[in-house]
Amino acid sequence: MSPETNFSPISSNSSRLRAEIESMPEWLRRPVGKASELSGVQRIIKQRQIHTICEEGRCPNRSECYAQGTATFLLMGPTCTRACAFCQVDKGHAPMPLDPKEPEKIAESVKLLGLRYVVLTSVARDDLPDGGAGWFAQTIAQIRQVNPGTRVEVLTPDFWGGSNRDRSLEDLQRQRIETVVSMQPACYNHNIETVQRLQNPVRRGAKYGRSLRVLEIVKELDPSIPTKSGLMLGHGETEVEVIEAMADLRAVGCDRLTIGQYMRPSLDHLPVQKYWTPAEFDHLGAIARKMGFSHVRSGPLVRSSYHAGEE
Predict the structure, then answer these.
(1) Segments of the chain with pLDDT less than 70
(2) How open is the CA angle 38-277-22, to the nearest 5 degrees?
(3) Is 307 domain-assigned?
(4) DSSP string of 46-60, one letter each residue
(5) What pLDDT is stored for residue 215 in this prediction?
(6) Residue 48 region by backbone torsions, left for phi larger than 0, else alpha for psi between -120 and 50, else beta
(7) CA distance 28 to 311
(8) Which 3 state secondary structure label does DSSP give 156?
(9) What pLDDT shows up at residue 7?
């Protein structure tokens, strides 16, 4: 059999992805970080069978955040009921049952790691009656009980899934958001991810207006809680569309913004249409600040929780 006919499709895919990674611009390359900064966190979360989006998403900034006393925990398991075309988190219609000790394990991990600022995010759990809102509340309460000095930010899904014969989905969404808002998080984050035109191909199962409504509801419930959202560039959006999305966020009172570069996790995910330059990110960041965002992080490697604890 010739080498050509014996070529493995898996090897071919690996080679293609490796070539794609190697062709990335120089500004997207950064050291993984000190092994000591990664191994301690990795050991603690592995021992307790909990998850962080830092590890599940292989965030390029995780060693920097760990060293600064910040981490982002992924609640309710590693399997999402949505199938967004950009996201590296596992997808499936049958997520694992909730671990009743997860809030306690996370609170204990926060103490062991000496974290001063914690971000709680989650997979979408449309299978749960409240979409997981109560789980956010339980985890925040447990963290505060064990670590009263630690501030907690939330990055929630849109809380749109599930059904109730007696309540509309709009009412259910508001009730779920209110459950989280009642815990007075340090910041309430919900990402629109991309511009309006690209929502369907990028965010399967999510809607642009629905996501804006999440941020608007938070402000209606408690105007004192800062709200935040994030955009990832590289899906084919234009500068005009990005600025329009930022204006839409300001229109619902969004206070903080992150803008980063989408990087393709695998060949099964959407390809990158454009690598925006650092200068372009700086330009967009300056526009965002002029629009009134109080806290802006705009750069190729910026992610939702990057420098989250900084005002």
Answers:
(1) 1-14, 16-22, 30-70, 79-95, 162-166, 306-311
(2) 55
(3) no
(4) HHTT-EEHHHHTT-T
(5) 98
(6) alpha
(7) 25
(8) coil
(9) 37
**The domain spanning residue 290 has which CATH number?**
3.20.20.70
Q: What is the pLDDT of residue 23?
A: 74
- The pLDDT score that the predictor gives to residue 305 is 75
Tell me the two tokens of residue 21. 């990674």
Q: What pLDDT score was predicted for residue 31?
A: 56
**At CA 181, angle to CA 88 and CA 101, rounded to 5?**
60
If 0-12 CB within 10 Å is exposed, 13-18 middle and 19+ buried, where does residue 23 land? exposed
Instruction: With respect to residue 304, please indicate whether it lies within any of the assigned structural domains.
Output: no
Q: Is residue 20 part of a domain?
A: no
In a domain, 185, yes or no: yes
The two three-digit tokens of residue 44, written as one number: 């603690």
The rounded distance, in Å, linking the Cα atoms of 178 and 220 is: 10
User: pLDDT at position 267, please?
Assistant: 73
End-to-end CA, the chain: 63
SS3 301: coil
pLDDT given for residue 290 in this prediction? 98
Structural domains counted in the chain? 1
Domain that holds residue 285: 48-298
pLDDT of residue 140: 98
**Token couple for 145:** 């009980």
